[in-house]
Amino acid sequence: MIMLSAFSGSSDRQPDNRRVALLKSLTTNNRFYLLVDPDSGLKNADTIERFPEESVLGIAYPCLEDGLNDFAIIRSTFETLDQFPDDEELRTELMEIIADAQRKLVLRLEELRDRISDGQAHFLGTDLEEFKGHIVNLATKGVPRKTLDSMMKLDIFETVASTEALLKGDFAPEFVYIYEPLPENPLDELLQMPPRPFIGRIFDDVLKSVLAEENYGDRHIFDRNVFQKFVALMFVNYATTDPVFYGTNKADYGVSADKDMDQTPLYVAVGKALRLLERQRQQELQGQGESPQEAPSAAADAPELSPTDQLVLARLLPICDTARILVTLDNGRARECGEYILREVHHLFTDLQEIGVMSSGAPSPVEQDYRDE
Predict the structure, then answer these.
(1) Rounded Cα distance, 57 and 25, in Å
(2) Where exactly are the structural domains of the chain?
């Protein structure tokens, strides 16, 4: 049994030697990036029963791609049904396959919705305000269907429009895809929500579409009412994420337990991002006089870091970590140097905030003890 401490951030000032691992939940089949202790025995591509509530989880583009497997099962099964329309016995068997894939999709989307909404799971390298803006654009102005198919390397948006036009007797299919939230999620109401709750609500919108049994009449209905929505979310995630998190660099290929991924571009970026998110979470909790164990979901209320905040903090944090090592040494001069470095880093950080480079809500990488305020 893996101890939960294997996932948690270190609260002391010792060097952080945790490694990035892409783990899969046996309960939901979701994969998330997280930091694990080398002594935990966990490696890339390992499975665990479920992700611990107190861990900070990272979502990169490949994580959402996993959901395509469940959709592929449903869509290919509908194709088989179309070949044997009069075989009721076969239809019964195949609909059970579809129902099983639907259950897996529900578990996957429920976890994504809940962990994103609670602030435990984070889209790495993504500006959530920009993410929300893209969804709003999809729901108001739309995106050409051909563009979506080309970007996502799928043949769905134009096919749905062509089939819909034939069924309605129209001469030309709809050129633009518009994301249409369900009636219980009116756009006017969604627009008033901050980015993270907004995104959680959109995932809930897709989840409710997956749950609606009327969307399983045939492949066209399923594609039109369910699959398009999920792929549209993937498109927005892709469009609003720093390319380093795509996992498409040649050095990133072939995630496995046997391959050393620590120095690949993707894993270096993921490690920096997760440590930033942990630091932000810890400082938010410290400001409330709580420990992470006392309020594991408090990160949902923490301010989101902009890409610039993430970039600058990613450079400052290693300097602070090195300075903290000096502070812990049994050498007076070393301690003085470490404390001086931490004070100056904090001064630099506040200067960057004052001139507008860093956002006012970004947390200082330096603990209160060393800020000399």
Answers:
(1) 12
(2) 61-123+127-240, 305-373
